[in-house]
Design goal:
2 domains; about 60% helix; elongated
Length: about 210
């Protein structure tokens, strides 16, 4: 099935469920849906999906039957900017999902389902950061490191650890590594910081390749 056909199957949310949720969290939910239906994470697909899922929030003022592309552009700019870093990539090259993205994905879903209010975000973010780090601790790369077999960690295991593949852009992998280091620092997980710093040093050449 082509991207266009998949996008056309997206269904709108009931307005009452999203009318009080900020645009950026709604946009991140849109990105999550694009990943779910396996379409390219492009600006164009995000614009179409945002209008189909949340038509009242992403329609052109005065013309509810048309999408507001400027609003979509501003959301994506904020979500992928240096301040938030909720999303990797840029509109021109396409976007990519990072460990921080997955934290916001779950947060957005919770808001839409009424499981929590915006006042509880800080606690929720901490829990989800802990979840992401726990998944990392369960990886084969970390287990080899603990067994003092770090030199046996493959490039494929490294990419899996950094939520990518061997085909992923090196800049994306490095950004994901930086985010994991940031999470470890924020949660004061020194053993994880030590591991990630070793990874960064040991795979310096691989992460620098183009």
């Amino acid at each position: 099935m082509k991207d266009k056909e998949k996008l056309e199957e997206l269904k709108p949310f009931i307005e009452s469920k999203y009318k009080n949720i900020d645009l950026d969290h709604l946009m991140m939910y849109v990105i999550k849906e694009l990943e779910r239906i396996k379409v390219n994470l492009s600006y164009e697909n995000a614009a179409v999906a945002a209008f189909r899922i949340f038509p009242k929030k992403f329609s052109l003022p005065g013309f509810p039957e048309y999408p507001d592309s400027n609003r979509v552009d501003q959301c994506l700019w904020r979500c992928s900017g240096k301040t938030r870093q909720w999303l990797g990539g840029k509109a021109r090259q396409g976007f990519n999902i990072t460990p921080r993205s997955r934290v916001i994905f779950e947060e957005s879903a919770d808001l839409l389902e009424g499981r929590k209010s915006t006042k509880t975000r800080a606690i929720s973010q901490t829990r989800r950061k802990e979840t992401i780090l726990a998944e990392m601790l369960d990886s084969s790369a970390y287990k080899k490191f603990l067994e003092e077999n770090g030199n046996l960690i493959t490039e494929g295991e490294l990419c899996f650890l950094l939520q990518g593949t061997l085909d992923s852009e090196k800049d994306t992998l490095k950004k994901n590594l930086d985010l994991l280091k940031m999470f470890a620092d924020e949660l004061e997980r020194k053993e994880i910081t030590t591991f990630l710093e070793w990874i960064e040093s040991h795979f310096k050449g691989f992460l620098r390749k183009r």
